[in-house]
Amino acid sequence: MLAEFVITFRETLEAALVVGIVLAFLAKTKRDEYNVHVYLGIGAGIVLSALFGLFLASVPGTLEGAAEEIFEGSIMVLAAIFVAWMILWMKGQKNVAGEIEAHARKHVESGYGLGLAIFIFLAVFREGFETAVFLASAYFQSSTISVLGAVLGVAAAVALGFLMFEFAIKVNLKMFFNASGLLLILFAGGLLLQAVHEFEEAGVLPEGAPLWNSESLLSQSSTLGTFLKALFGYASRPTLAQLGAYVCFIAGFLYFYFFYGSAKPAAAMQSHKPF
Length: 275
Hints:
This protein has 275 residues and is mostly helical.
């Protein structure tokens, strides 16, 4: 439940911040007639994200054996890459609000309401796309997903976004994104470990002998084991390839985050973000 909550809360909050900044700009400049374009963008982004999520959930049912394991493993790898990309990009941003407002101003001053709707759509769909990939990966990893956790995450983010812009409530977003980013990167490492497991079972990677067996101490099927597997990818019998993927991913991310510098990753990813 915690993983689903953190995923949907963070992604929804990012989308809510974009929408809130644009609506605040429209209110400040008394251009409320463009609000409808914002709502159209939101609706289109949510609908397309939901359809993409349904597609991801339905694909494994059409596959068998190795093909299903390769598909699930590939989605887990994609989700891990998205997590690292998202956190590094966020770290390098200094004035996201200013950039968002500049985009909104450009479309409003040119009278291009459709452009504003497309801008909002891309922002919402990007977060929805990532959420769908993350939740699908979480499901493939543990064969279950907490709908309640996901719904609570969305509701909490929408409520927080509303309070921030309607009542000017101050929130330390940098602290929140740093804390949630740390939790998500551990979650992503677990996804990568599980992806290697799927590739080993599919025969894409050679299946090595387990480095240890902690099943008698903490079974993967126990309540705590299931929780740790869903959140951090706990494996009671990890192979060298699985453990190596986990350690290298975490170590590589920490290197780029703390030592490589935020400017280069941010610049490299800037063109891939809608704001």
